[in-house]
Amino acid sequence: MVQDKIAIQDVYPDDYAWCYGCGRLNENGHHFRTVWAGENTETEYTPKPEHTAIPGFVYGGLLASLVDCHGTGSASLALHRKNGHEPGDGTEPPRFVTASLQIDFMKPTPQNAPLRAIGTVEEVHPKKWKVHTEVFANGTCVVKGTVVAAVMPKTFMEQAEK
Amino acid sequence: MVQDKIAIQDVYPDDYAWCYGCGRLNENGHHFRTVWAGENTETEYTPKPEHTAIPGFVYGGLLASLVDCHGTGSASLALHRKNGHEPGDGTEPPRFVTASLQIDFMKPTPQNAPLRAIGTVEEVHPKKWKVHTEVFANGTCVVKGTVVAAVMPKTFMEQAEK
Question: Which domains does chain A have, with CATH numbers?
Fold first, then answer.
C-alpha cells in the first residue's frame, strides 16, 4: 500500500517541499506521494468534490497535475536508486522540474473513485528522465501521460532568492 | 481589458459551469475567463501564493490547468462565432472537453505576476479544434501549450446522470 511506504516527497529537502501538487509543507496543496511499486512507480489520490470538470467527472487540470508530480517524483526515485539510495536511508534525493507534459484523456474520469497513477521510468540523459504514466479509476485506464523531467538547475533557487 | 468583456464561461449553460478551472458556479475553483482579443483569445489569471512549485515559481499543474481551460474556452468562442454568435447575444455556446494537452515549460514562471494566456484557434474538424497557447509573465513567454478540444459528447451528461 502506498501509505505504508516512504514516498520520495516525504524526504525532499525542506526548501523544495512546498509544491502545490506534492509538497508536504504546502498546507493548501494536494500532497501527492510517489513510491516504488516493484519496477514501476505509484501515486494514489482521490480527487475532492470540487475537482470537477462536468458534474460527475474529474477536472482535467487535476489529472494533469497528478501526472506532472508523479513524473517528477518518479524521476527522483529512479535517479536516487541509480545513485544507490532509497527513500528514508538518510540521503537527500535529487529534485526534478518538468520540462514538458503530454496528456491524453482516454475516457472521462469518474468522480468519487480513488485514482492510481502507475509510472514507467526511462533515462534519456543522466539529468533528463522520461516518465510514462497511466492513470486508473476503478481499474480502467482513463489518462495516459508523459513527463520529461530534468534535474533542477541550481540557478532555480538562486533566482528565487533574488 | 479582459474583465470588461463577456467571457465564454460567463454564458456556459448552468449545468456545464462547475469546472474547477473555469466554472463560474464552482466556489472553490480558479474562475478562468476567456475572451476574444482581436482574432486571438485571452485569459488572465494571477496565481495564488499557494500555487508554487519551488518557492518563487508557479506550479506547473496550475499552468497546465490555465492552458487546458483556455483551450476549451477558446474552442467554444471560435465555434460560437462560426455559428454566427458572440458571448452575450442570448444563444448558449457549445461546450468542449479536452482530448489532449501538450505543455512545454519554456522558462520558470515567476510568482506574483499576472499571467496572460494568448490563444490561436485552428479548426481541424467541425467538432474538433486545436488551440495553440502562449502564456506570458511580465511580457516573457514562459509556457507554450496545445489543446485538442472536442465538442462534448451528449453521452457525457447521460453518464453523469446515472
Answer: 2-161 (3.10.129.10)
